[in-house]
Specification:
It is built from 5 helices and 10 strands; from the N terminus they run H-E-E-E-E-E-E-E-H-E-E-E-H-H-H. The longest helix is centred in the N-terminal third of the chain and has 21 residues. Helices cover 24% and strands 32% of the residues.
């Protein structure tokens, strides 16, 4: 008598749980690819652009970083150009001296390559519009967030390093100080990571 009653209770519980389990369905938001993080992704072309950000250690300059994954199993590809687009068309973008190669089914992290320097009127917390062009002829335009060069991004803004090297220990001679063209361009103060992270 007892085993039958237990069996009926288990069967009843399953019948009640069945609508809850079947309500998940297919093609729901939980089935979609999602990478938590500050960067933005684009998976439309043969080259997937993942976790794209501009890392900024100071206002008005930063370094574009992203991971590039070649989805083609036969053809290599390469990033040949980065340019401002839309409202960000007036940004100054460092040239990519030689194409950044992505082998078939390969993966390149631009942080390992030093990234691409970007300068203009922006700061951490802004979004800039950038176009990536590949040697296959494909181009992708995307909105890229500007993040503080703090925590996992610390030390990744090569534009800030270049500014620091230009001004470090440079005491101009009297003849240099008379000439404005000989003076290094003024640089913005670096962001205070402790203050920035406490605000976030």
């Amino acid at each position: 008598m007892q085993p039958r009653r237990s069996l009926r209770l288990v069967a009843g519980a399953l019948v009640l749980a069945l609508p809850l389990l079947s309500s998940c369905g297919f093609n729901k938001a939980t089935d979609k690819v999602y990478t938590p993080g500050e960067g933005t992704n684009n998976r439309d072309g043969d080259v997937k652009i993942l976790a794209a950000v501009v890392v900024a250690a100071q206002p008005d300059s930063g370094t574009f970083l992203a991971s590039l994954s070649n989805n083609s199993s036969e053809d290599s590809n390469a990033l040949t150009e980065l340019a401002g687009a839309g409202d960000s068309a007036d940004l100054s973008i460092g040239a990519i001296d030689s194409p950044i190669e992505i082998p078939p089914r390969g993966f390149v992290n631009l942080a390992d390559e030093g990234g691409v320097n970007v300068s203009g009127d922006f700061g951490a917390g802004d979004v800039v519009e950038l176009t990536l062009t590949f040697d296959s002829g494909d181009s992708v335009t995307m909105d890229v967030p500007v993040v503080y060069a703090c925590d996992e991004y610390a030390g990744l803004d090569s534009s800030a390093e270049a500014s620091a090297e230009a001004t470090d220990g440079a005491t101009p001679s009297p003849s240099e100080s008379e000439s404005e063209s000989a003076s290094p361009a003024p640089t913005q103060p670096l962001y205070d990571c402790a203050a920035a992270l406490s605000e976030g």
